[in-house]
Design a protein that fits this description.
Elements: E1 8-10, E2 16-17, E3 33-35, H1 74-80, E4 89-94, H2 100-113, E5 118-122, H3 127-137, E6 144-147, H4 152-162, E7 166-170, H5 187-204, E8 208-212, H6 225-229, E9 232-238, E10 244-252, E11 260-266, E12 269-272, E13 291-298, E14 301-313, E15 321-324, H7 328-341, E16 349-355, H8 367-379, E17 387-389, E18 392-393, E19 399-400, H9 405-414, E20 419-421, H10 428-438
Helix pairs in contact: 7-8, 8-10
Length: about 450
Amino acid sequence: MAKPTANFVCTECGWTTLKWAGRCGECQQWGTVIEKDAPAQPRTAASRPAAGRAARPITSIEPRETSHTPTGIAEFDRVLGGGIVPGAAILLSGEPGVGKSTLLLEVAARAAKHGQRVLYVSAEESVAQVRLRAERTGALTPELYLASETDLATILGQIDEVQPALVIVDSVQTVASSLVEGLAGGVSQVREVAATLIRVAKEREVPVVLVGHVTKDGTIAGPRLLEHLVDVVCQFEGDRQTALRFVRALKNRFGPTDEVGCFEMTGDGIAEVADPSILFRSGSSTPVSGTCVAIAMEGRRALPVEVQALIVASNAPQPRRVVNGVDSSRVAMLLAVLERRCGMPLSGFDVYVSTVGGIRLTEPAADLAIALAVASARREKALDAHLAAIGEISLAGEIRAVSGASQRAAEAARLGYTTVVDASALHLREAVRLAFASAHDDALDVPEF
C-alpha cells in the first residue's frame, strides 16, 4: 500500500499534516493551514539581469541619505527618527480605544495644513463619523481627503484620483481584495492587501500608514509576514484608566528603535507631552513620608517617577502586600532585604506600594527608590524633596550600578534633584543613612525601627 502523503501545509512555518487543522501544530497560528496544490510548481529558470541592475561592489555604490519629512508632532517624529520617509510603509498597532485613529487624524491634519494632500481611508467608520471627530479635534482642512472604503481596488482608484502625498488606511484588517478568497482580516487577505499597498508606496514614493489590530495577548493580528513587509512598526500603548499614552518603535529601518513618544488624551483630542516628568510626580509642596523619586528610562528618555509607600500595622497572620505599577515579587524581595540586612521589622505590617501617574516600573533601577520609600513610611519621616534614587539591590543588600546611570543623574540634576543616592553608597544600609541625613535628621546612623 502506498504511504500517505501530507496534503496540508502551514503558510507561516511550512508544517505539514495529513488532515486539515484550524491551528498549526508548530507555530500555533490560527487559520494558516491550507491544502496543497495538486500540480507541482515549475522551477524558476535563471535569467540575465537587466541593464544597470547587475551586482556591483559595495564600495562603488554612492551613499544616499534618507530624508525625513516632519509630521508636525514632535513626539511622533522622535519615534520615527525625525519624520516620515517618502515611500515608507508604517504599521501602527494598539488596543481598541487607545487612540490610534485620533493620533493619525492629527498627523493627517498637520500634514494637510502644511500644503500636502492627504488621503485618509477609513474602513471602519463612515466619512461623517470621521468628520465629527476632526471637527472636535480641530483637524478640518481642505487638503485632507476622506474616503470610507473596504475594497482594495477602490482604494487604489482613490489614490489614482486624489494623487496624495500621504495615505492612511484604517485599518488593514478590514480591507479585502476580490482577487483572494476569504473574509477580510484573514491571513491571505491581510497579506495581499498589505503587499499591494506597500508596492504602491514604493513605486510612487508615497508614504503609507497602516493601522493594525492586536490580538488578546497584545500581538499584531494577522500573519507575521505583515511586520516583515513594512519599514516601521510602532506600538501605541496606554491604560484606559489614565490619559497617558506611549508610542514605541518595535522596528525602524530609518531610525532608532529605543525612542518613546509621550501623549495625553484630552477632550479635544490627543496632545503631545514634551516634558512628561510632571505627570509622574505628585504636586504636593510639603514633603510627605513614604515617597521617593526614581529616575526611570523609557527608551532613551530619562523620566522621574515618584514611588509611594504606605505601612499600616496588622494583626493578620499574613499581612497584605499590595502593589500598583511595580512588580509584586520584586517588592516582596526588597521587603525581605530591608528586614534582614537593615534590621527593619516589616513582618507585622501591611505594605502598600504604588507609582504616581499610572506608569509601570519594571526595571531593577527602581529598587533603591522603592526601598527608601518603604523605609521613610516605616519611620514616618519624610525624605528630602530634592532627593532621587538610582540603583539595583541584591539579596546581600549591595547596591549595583544600572545602565544609563550618567544620563539618569544628568536628568535628575536638570530637574533640580541636588542629592542622588546611587551605587556609590555600596550598601542599602549606607543608602538609608544618606537618605535620612539629607532630610536633616539628627541621627546619622541607620535609625532604630
